[in-house]
Each structure stands twice: as structure tokens, then as C-alpha cells.
């Protein structure tokens, strides 16, 4: 039995209850969670923007301790500390063979398979991980080992927000020293992107968010300017960048209007990198003249275009060197019963990351 926050209806409440985990099968690993971040993608799964079989245990940004391994697992052992990877590559498909493991054709194979039962009803794991539970069962390839001296509560953020935000800057946008960067949307991903831009050596980092309460945190992480979104945002960003526009705009909201604003905020020849996952019913439009005239690029970014097995160790180097502040991204902490409140804060744009802490020696 494990304690979990279960969602039974679309956009319905999450109820804390005991569920029965399936046995740890061949190639699988059982993990006792220490902490899990509450991500906007969890909200998108809850409200139907992203598909999710129900009933489900959401949560995909987690870290914990391996308690059991199935037959054939050699990559981790009981007692190992791990970060969960919600998009584990198969290492064999076309995308994996061509250096794009973040687009793996089989990354979501486990998402349609129940990982637990409750009163005889199958329960599915959100994004294949089910991190809003005291324990979960995942594939061994979904476990990224981390050294035992790294606090698991902070390591959990590596599983999505930090990999995505820093990866958007370094892997997708490929920001170079001296370039200017605008980051639109300052949730956990956007604040990680600010840190990524600072680490990359950006000369100006313009943070964009409607909440003035986020300005001190954004500046402490590397932002040189803070502006609210408004109709004249592209013009203001051009003013802040010598009349040119930003070399890069990192869009972390996932709305048509903010994607369009990111595009318009970049200089001629600049790049807008879209990180936010939006709705299929929310279009973005460009006229036929501006696409060629401005010679801008718009780049999609999935999971920071990362390979977590490669990028997590790099992020840990930055963390140990003091270049990456993980603790600062956490603005609220709750137990399982507080996830609904975390969703409410996300809807209203409050705070950065809410962290679910589990009462466990792993914490």
C-alpha cells in the first residue's frame, strides 16, 4: 500500500487515499519518494489540456530512494538516490539514434499502463511516473542516479523545471556569452531559464511576468530587468536592448499571445524558443511578409531538448559550484493534501514551485 493523491474525474479534486502498487516487474524499479514538485504540466493533465487516463496519480517531478529492483535491472540498486525522468528515451528509435532523445518515439509507452489499483480499479501514473505518492513503480530507464550528498528535496526540481528551463537556454536556444535574453513567464521553468541565461553569460536578462512580487527573486537569480506583460512589450524590450530587440526570447507560458509577443520581442534574425505547452485550440498567427523580412526563428523545445542522463550531472556541477540555486525556486511546501492549493496558486500566477514533501527518512 502507498499513500497517494488520486484524481478520479477530469479537473476534479485530488483525494489522498491508499492504493496498491503493482509488483515490481522485470526492468522496473520501486522508489520511495522524498519530494515532488508541482508543475504546470500537472495542472494541464488535470484540466484536460494534456491527455491522461483516469483515475490517475499525477506528479512527474520527483526524487527519492530505490527500495526494490526487478529482474534484469543493473543500472540502480536498493538504497540509490534517484531523480525521476518522465520522458525516458528508449535509445533505439530513429530520434534517439539521431541525437534527439527528448523526442523518443517510445518515451510515453508506460503512460497507458496502470501502475496501481484502488478498490479493484486500475490507477494510472501521470506522465508515467506518479510522483504524488509516497512510493511509485517506474521503468529502470526512468531513474537518474544522483549522489547521496545532494538533498533530494532540491534534486526533485531537476526532474522537470530545471532541466526544461536551463535546457531551453543552453540546448534549444544555444545562448552565447554577451547575447540578450527575454524570459516570459516566471514559474519554476522561467526562473530556471533566467539562471540558465546567467550561466550562459547573457549580457541582459529581461524577466517578464505580471506578478511584481516575483521581481526580487528574478533579480537575485540573474535578471537585469523586470517588466510586466503589456501591449507594448516588444517595443519596451527593444528599448532595453539598444533598439534591436532581444537576441533570444524564451516563452514559458504556452499561450498564443505570449508566443506572439516573444516572437515580436526578438531582433531581426533573433530566436523565439517556445517552452510552454499550450492548447491545441489556441492559434498563433504571423503575416506572410514578416516571416521573411525579420528572418527570425521560432523554435519548439521539449523537456529542454535534454538527455537527462547527460544533463543532470552537468546541472549538479553548476549546483555544487554555486552557479545554480535550486532552493530559491521553491516558494511553498505542502504535503499531499496541499496539491489542490498549489494548483490554485498556479492558476493565479502566484509563486514559483510548490514542493510536496513526504514524511520519509529519504527526505
Largest sheet: 7 strands, mixed
Number of distinct helices: 11
Low-confidence regions: none
By CATH, the topology of the largest domain is Quinone Oxidoreductase, Chain A, domain 1
Tally of domains: 2
CATH H-level superfamily title of the largest domain: Medium-chain alcohol dehydrogenases, catalytic domain
Order of helices and strands: EEEHEEEHEEEEHHEHEHEHEHEHEHEHE
User: How many runs of DSSP E, i.e. beta strands?
Assistant: 18
Mean pLDDT equals 95
Instruction: Quote the beta fraction.
Output: 25-35%
The residue fraction in helices comes out at 25-40%
End-to-end distance, in Å?
A: 19 Å
Can you identify the CATH class of the largest domain? Alpha Beta
> In the CATH classification, which architecture of the largest domain applies?
Alpha-Beta Complex
Which overall shape is indicated by the principal axes computed on the Cα atoms?
globular
Describe it.
The protein has 363 residues and is α/β, with parallel strands linked by helices. The chain is 26% helix and 28% strand. The chain has eleven helices and 18 strands. α7 (233-240) packs parallel to α8. The longest helix has 13 residues, at 161-173. The chain is globular, with a radius of gyration of 20 Å. The mean pLDDT is 95.
Amino acid at each position: 500500500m502507498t499513500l497517494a493523491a488520486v484524481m478520479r474525474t477530469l479537473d476534479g479534486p485530488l483525494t489522498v487515499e491508499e492504493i496498491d502498487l503493482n509488483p515490481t516487474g522485470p526492468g522496473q524499479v520501486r522508489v520511495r519518494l522524498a519530494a515532488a514538485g508541482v508543475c504546470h504540466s500537472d495542472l494541464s493533465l488535470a484540466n484536460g489540456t494534456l491527455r491522461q487516463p483516469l483515475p490517475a496519480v499525477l506528479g512527474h517531478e520527483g526524487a527519492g530512494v530505490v527500495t526494490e529492483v526487478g529482474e534484469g535491472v543493473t543500472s540502480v540498486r536498493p538504497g540509490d538516490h534517484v531523480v525521476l525522468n518522465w520522458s525516458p528515451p528508449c535509445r533505439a528509435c530513429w530520434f534517439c539514434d539521431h541525437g534527439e532523445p527528448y523526442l523518443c518515439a517510445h518515451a510515453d509507452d508506460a503512460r497507458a499502463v496502470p501502475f496501481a489499483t484502488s478498490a479493484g480499479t486500475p490507477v494510472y501514473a501521470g506522465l508515467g511516473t506518479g510522483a504524488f505518492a509516497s512510493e511509485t513503480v517506474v521503468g529502470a530507464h526512468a531513474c537518474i542516479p544522483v549522489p547521496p550528498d545532494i538533498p533530494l528535496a532540491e534534486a526533485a526540481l531537476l526532474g522537470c523545471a530545471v532541466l526544461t528551463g536551463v535546457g531551453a537556454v543552453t540546448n534549444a536556444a544555444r545562448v552565447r556569452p554577451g547575447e540578450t535574453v527575454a524570459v516570459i513567464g516566471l514559474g519554476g521553468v522561467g526562473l530556471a531559464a533566467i539562471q540558465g541565461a546567467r550561466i550562459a553569460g547573457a549580457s541582459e536578462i529581461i524577466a517578464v511576468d505580471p506578478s511584481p512580487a516575483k521581481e526580487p527573486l528574478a533579480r537575485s537569480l540573474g535578471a537585469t530587468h523586470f517588466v510586466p506583460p503589456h501591449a507594448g512589450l516588444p517595443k519596451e524590450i527593444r528599448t532595453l536592448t539598444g533598439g534591436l530587440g532581444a537576441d533570444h526570447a524564451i516563452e514559458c507560458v504556452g499561450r498564443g499571445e505570449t508566443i506572439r509577443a516573444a516572437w515580436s520581442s526578438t531582433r531581426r534574425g533573433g530566436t523565439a524558443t517556445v517552452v510552454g505547452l499550450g492548447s491545441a485550440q489556441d492559434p498563433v498567427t504571423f503575416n506572410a511578409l514578416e516571416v521573411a523580412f525579420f528572418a527570425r526563428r521560432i523554435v519548439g523545445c521539449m523537456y529542454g531538448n535534454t538527455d537527462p542522463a547527460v544533463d543532470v550531472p552537468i546541472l549538479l556541477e553548476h549546483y555544487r559550484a554555486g552557479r545554480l540555486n535550486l532552493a530559491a525556486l521553491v516558494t511553498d511546501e505542502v504535503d499531499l493534501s496541499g496539491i489542490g492549493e498549489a494548483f490554485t496558486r498556479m492558476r493565479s500566477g502566484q509563486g514559483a514551485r510548490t514542493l510536496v514533501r513526504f514524511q520519509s527518512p529519504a527526505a
